Amino acid sequence: MYFIANWKMYGNLKTLKSINKVIEFSKRYKNKKFKIVYCPPYTLLEAFSKKVKKTTIELGAQNCHFEISSGPFTGSISPMMLKSIGSKYVIIGHSENRSTGETDFQIKNKINSSMKSGLNIIFCIGETLQQRKKKLTNKILKNQILKGLPKIKKLNKILIAYEPVWSIGTGIIPKLSELEKNITFIKNLLKNNIKIKNSKVLYGGSVNPKNVKNLASIKNIDGFLVGGASQKAKNFIDIVKKTII
Ligand code: PGA
Predict the structure, then answer these.
(1) What is the domain partition of the chain in residue ranges?
(2) Rounded to two decimals, what is the model's pTM?
(3) Which of 225, 232, 236, 239 to mutate to test the pocket of ligand 1 (most atoms within 8 A of CB)?
(4) Class of domain 2-244
């Protein structure tokens, strides 16, 4: 099971301390099978990297530029830069970035260069409420996957984060049956159209210590991408605990 903490545009050197408790927790339960990945804002990557060095916790970034190493792109960070600072993962295609103009084409290029630089990808997909109401969910998911994934081998280094846009930060989660059905749809699509056999699909959207036990009961779920509830160590630890213990 994967537990990805997406800190979004929150956090500073003070709040960074909260990770101490999570490090302690991960040491205590090191015989259990789970992976914690922290994705703080760029400004905290270096400090995080030092903290998690000799632990089982891994580091990820929340986005990157599609140019693999460097170039005249003011304000951007490349996959190689992320790698050099100790990032092992990068989130790509988050709906908060799609909604401000990120296209499937850009996403595909970002995934491509991130893979080339050796990063693991957390590829976000998900339908909006309107699309869901119009029963377009499968079509949207299929489109996002087929347009966003580059045609390269080794796509098995990709984790898919299924995040219905209407669940992010709203406190509303899909019915378990709906979620299970959508995850199955994604896994079948990856198997049949992209030839990824053992794909990993995580769920994201308002995951918290109260609803996680139920969500984790879904057979084909491989973990969670946690936004708001990952900012407090206690909540995040509870989420992991309730899933793995
Ligand atoms: P949330 O965010 O847990 O705050 O809903 C999830 C995400 O956007 O990755």
Answers:
(1) 2-244
(2) 0.97
(3) 225
(4) alpha beta
Q: List, for residues 124-145, the tens digit of each pLDDT value.
A: 999 999 999 999 999 999 999 9
Active site residues: 94, 163
- For a substitution probing ligand 1, which of 206, 212, 215 has the most ligand atoms within 8 Å of its CB? 206
What is the per-residue pLDDT for 152?
77
Span 38-51, average pLDDT: 97
The 3-state secondary structure of the chain, one letter per residue: CEEEEECCCCCCCCHHHHHHHHHHHHHHCCCCCCEEEEECCHHHHHHHHHHHCCCCCEEEECCCCCCCCCCCCCCCCCHHHHHHCCCCEEEECCHHHHCCCCCHHHHHHHHHHHHHCCCEEEEEECCCHHHHHCCCHHHHHHHHHHHHCCCCCCHHHEEEEECCHHHCCCCCCCCHHHHHHHHHHHHHHHHHHCCCCCCEEEEECCCCCCCHHHHHCCCCCCEEEECHHHCCHHHHHHHHHHHHC
